[in-house]
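Reply to dn_fold:

You asked what the input looked like. This is it:
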Amino acid sequence: MVPGVRAVSSRSGRNGLIRLKDHRQREQNGALQTARSVNYFVNQVTLDGIRAHMQIVIPVLVVIAVPTLLYAFVMFDRLVRAEYEYDRVAWEADGRPRGFLWRAPECTWFRSAWSTNRLSLRWLFTTPAWAVQSPACRGWLRRLRACVLVWNVFIFSLFIVIAFSFR
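and this is what came back:
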């Protein structure tokens, strides 16, 4: 406590202001009120900006992006299952991948997960030899690539919206 200044009460007033018995009462309470006002203003500006954008982004995420991602998982699973059923040697050579929603009995935990991650990236840029012969597999690959592209564009746009909402 500062010498010569006596607090009237150890508790703050109803509004959270400090009660002092000397001339600094106004200065300290004014500074406290100013700090609270600035803090409230900054929170409202940034949070309201984010909330306004998120009111648009979140429904779009739920309605467009999440089903697109799930459809990409289904397309990948179809490709892995086709490789498993029609070209078992290629499936073995690829490391016995499993799908996101489908799993062959021969799949192992670590090796299959590793090959799934590797193939989910590789098949976006290259068409496997066993899939070239099948029109269905080529169609699934095109759909997988389109879904992943839509998902990535949406996520990139989401980051842009969030970044500009903080400006």
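Residues 25-86 form the longest helix (62 residues).
Hope that clears it up.
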